[in-house]
Design brief:
Helix 4 runs antiparallel to helix 12, helix 12 crosses helix 13 and helix 20 packs across helix 21. The protein is α+β, with helices and mostly antiparallel strands. The protein is built from 21 helices and 41 strands. The model has no long low-confidence stretch (mean pLDDT 91). It is elongated, with a radius of gyration of 38 Å. Helix content is 24%, strand content 27%.
Length: 804
């Protein structure tokens, strides 16, 4: 909700500065998300009138203007704007004026100078030059009644501040300037200036027949006919400015009037072209197969769950959300029908999201709009139509069929004091209700409130308790120590915290990212191989329609986001829960029946291994770099990497990660088809692990320093390409654990052309063996016997032979 401070102060003007007013609103539950001046600072810009102009003698696109700024002397100003003309009133920057900074960030000072040999005593300004908008099509045209010489900041009320409020769904009554003013009056005690709605003169007796067939859709429907309206009339500048400061652009006078009253009083309304309506209107639920072309150009198909306004031939409007194109007003419109209704919030809620758009009207109606003021608000709209567009108003047609019943809510003063956490008196609580304009009755220790027509959020006692502390002020809460006893629990040394895991990843040069748990369905099918993802009943955006069962999709999207901003090296990780169907899962702390929610850790590496440097040549990150990162994460646990396939990963460059024979995740390059599909220049390397495996930590165990010295022997063996590193080292380790302390592969050789001692498909592997016996000094005979045992075991199990 955005609005200018000056408009709010017309209804309620508390003795508070702008920042203090913003703090008050925030601390009362109406968070002020942004404070922004209407215009940046500038000085010595006044209202000027172009008296005459002539072509510049030395430039075809420049004019020499005589400008009256009310000083008694005409100024000679050179101007190149295409829309400059005699008689226009425009902003004129005098010599010495300081304009807002340009692209270089420096303020622009107007000096006396010459342009192509002609002296210029100032500058005529556009809206863009004053930083009022991005319009640079020409000079900013002012109203004809603008006083000459008046400071432009005063004339256009530029010393104003725009408030942007982030309102929670229960504050539907604050979705208007008057609604916020009503809250400010209650919070500060400043009188509220309520608008008056005097009936306009009725000039004819025509009434449009309206029938309400669905009381559960529409509880009240009010409307009137206004004839002989000039729809080409220009919207007054004051209304255009106020709408712009609420974030709404000007369209036509009739549309602007409807929007203006919505921002002013919080009630959306609709204006039909009366001559396009066939034999009256019917308010009802839609029927399967009916179609409607909306004002936004979309054509939708309605059903029995969507409310509509229809005439005798077709559906003409989506109830409470948006009007139809068939009955929209145009420059040819002469007679209009003005409508204001009460639509049940339950009948409007979620309907616009079904059609993938939202509107200001639907946003308000689904939160609840005051049903008691439909007639008064039509009077306000009619008054503005007659003032701006002219016309003749007909009688009011008001039909009430079903209004919400306001059930009394009782507040127990003792209960309020206990929940709020400070002493309260009944007089304080009663004073809050009076300030809020809530009708109430009192008994000993209780206050019973009957919610007014504009408050849809007062349903239970806790709602009233919130109102009490909100009005009294959260800063009045005393600082008290907690009564609960706190005992720190010591984490087992065999467990790492999730925070420690994140620190480890950060130490490995990965940056943490946080993504939505809602993802695109495409990601689940392609990157997780999940054909039946868990769907979100009410997604916050149409693409984010399912729950993630893998973190990989979010990381790929982060990579795309960074690449679009010319980032060349990306290393990111995420720790978060995923959601999978699992019938064996019962209710638990992080699961519901049938849905498992395990914690996962995933990472992505893309681009060069290191930042550009002189000490090493640049190369792209590969599988083995990320494999090393995973081994560092899991240390001192020993992980094994088994060739395996994964829907998101390259079938020949991916592996399943196992610890003690249990699969804990996958690692590998992104599959080529997904790299191409997601438009990535190179394939990133990804991994995803169960967080529980990363949190395991082996406790160190004492080992005495060896009393004997190790012996080292290097052997070179010839093995088939199918022999894996894991099989090779595992076979050696099993030979004689009491003698063979370690084995490390340090060289691989494969000749470019066939060699005498190696057949096709074979390679030479160089291995360094460490031999050690803590109990006795090793002799050459025992060392050689140990090496021979290793060679014999390799030959028997893997078909490996000694080279040479």
């Amino acid at each position: 909700m955005q609005f200018p401070e000056s408009w709010l102060r017309e209804f309620c003007n508390p003795p508070l500065e702008t920042k203090a007013l913003a703090e008050l609103l925030t601390m009362s539950g109406m968070e002020v998300e942004e404070l922004r001046p209407v215009a940046p600072p500038f000085s010595r810009v006044v209202v000027g009138r172009v008296v005459s102009l002539e072509r510049h003698p030395n430039a075809d696109r420049l004019n020499v203007c005589q400008v009256d700024v009310g000083s008694g002397t005409l100024l000679n100003i050179v101007c190149g704007a295409p829309n400059v003309a005699a008689g226009l009133k425009v902003p004129c920057a005098l010599v010495g004026a300081v304009l807002p900074p340009g692209e270089d960030g420096k303020p622009f000072e107007i000096k006396l100078g010459k342009l192509r040999g002609v002296e210029s005593q100032g500058m005529l300004c556009s809206a863009r030059e004053l930083k009022l908008s991005e319009d640079h099509g020409g000079l900013l045209i002012l109203a004809e009644d603008a006083p000459l010489g008046e400071d432009i900041r005063k004339h256009l009320s530029l010393d104003d501040t725009l408030f942007t409020l982030k309102l929670t769904p229960n504050l539907g009554h604050c979705l208007s300037v008057f609604g916020i003013a009503r809250e400010v009056a209650a919070l500060t005690g400043t009188p509220l200036k309520s608008p008056a709605f005097p009936p306009v003169p009725v000039k004819h007796a025509a009434v449009l027949p309206v029938k309400i067939e669905a009381p559960d859709l529409c509880g009240r429907f009010s409307g009137r006919i206004v004839r002989n309206v000039d729809t080409t009339a220009k919207t007054p500048a004051w209304m255009v400015d106020r709408l712009a400061r609420c974030g709404q652009r000007s369209v036509t006078a009739l549309v602007d009037i409807s929007n203006y009253v919505m921002f002013e009083l919080g009630r959306p309304s609709h204006i039909f072209d009366l001559d396009k309506i066939h034999h009256g209107l019917t308010v009802r639920w839609g029927r399967p197969g009916e179609q409607l072309k909306l004002l936004n150009g979309n054509t939708i198909e309605v059903d029995a769950a969507v409310g509509v306004i229809a005439d005798a031939e077709a559906v003409e409007s989506l109830a409470g959300i948006m009007g139809g194109d068939a009955t929209s007003v145009s420059d040819a419109t002469r007679n209009v029908y003005v409508e204001a209704a009460f639509w049940w919030p339950e009948a409007v809620s979620g309907r616009s999201r079904r059609f993938n758009f939202t509107t200001d009207a639907g946003h308000r109606f689904e939160r609840g709009v005051d049903p008691a003021q439909t007639v008064e608000h039509i009077e306000r709209i009619t008054q503005l139509i007659l003032e701006i567009c002219g016309g003749e108003a007909g009688p009011m047609d008001d039909q009430t069929v079903a209004l919400p019943a306001r059930k009394p809510v009782t507040l127990r003063v003792a209960r309020a004091a206990k929940v709020i956490g400070m002493p309260l008196t009944q007089a304080q609580c009663a004073g809050v209700m009076e300030r809020l304009g809530l009708p109430f009755t009192q008994a000993e220790g209780t206050i019973t409130v009957t919610p007014p027509s504009w408050r849809f959020d007062l349903l239970i006692e806790e709602d009233l308790i919130e109102e009490v502390i909100r009005v009294l002020g959260y800063p009045t809460l005393p600082s008290t120590r907690p009564l609960a006893s706190l005992a720190a629990s010591v984490r087992s040394e065999s467990k790492r915290s999730p925070h420690a895991v994140r620190h480890l990843l950060a130490g490995l040069d990965y940056q943490e990212t946080i993504n939505f748990s809602f993802v695109e369905e495409r990601w689940e099918h392609e990157l997780a191989g999940n054909a039946d993802p868990i769907r979100v009943l009410n997604p916050i955006a149409s693409p984010l329609s399912v729950m993630r069962s893998s973190l990989i999709g979010g990381l790929v999207n982060v990579l795309r986001f960074n690449l679009a901003r010319k980032t060349t090296r990306v290393r990111v990780f995420e720790s978060g829960r995923v959601f999978r169907r699992d019938a064996s899962v019962a209710n638990g702390a992080f699961s519901v029946a049938g849905i498992a929610q395990p914690l996962r850790v995933a990472g992505l590496a893309y681009g060069p291994v290191d930042a550009l440097q002189w000490a090493a040549k640049e190369r792209q990150v590969d599988f083995f770099d990320v494999k090393g990162d995973i081994e560092s994460l899991l240390a001192p646990l020993a992980a094994s990497f088994v060739a395996a396939e994964h829907p998101a990963l390259h079938p020949g460059r991916s592996a399943r990660i196992e610890v003690d024979g249990q699969a804990i995740g996958h690692v590998g390059e992104l599959h080529p088809k997904w790299r191409q599909s997601y438009e990535l220049p190179h394939a990133p390397v990804l991994f995803e692990l169960d967080a529980s495996a990363l949190q395991q930590r082996l406790l160190p165990q004492f080992q005495p320093i060896p009393k004997q010295q190790s012996a080292w022997r290097d052997i070179a063996v010839i093995a088939a390409e199918q022999v894996t590193h894991e099989a090779l080292i595992g076979t050696i380790a099993a030979v004689d654990p009491g003698l063979i302390r370690s084995a490390r592969l340090f060289d691989i050789y494969k000749p470019a052309t066939p060699a005498a001692d190696m057949a096709a498909g074979e390679r030479s592997l160089a291995i360094r063996l460490e031999l050690l016996d803590d109990a006795a000094t090793l002799t050459d005979e025992r060392i050689e016997a140990g090496v021979h045992k290793v060679l014999d075991s390799l030959k028997a199990r893997l078909g490996v032979r000694l080279r040479g």
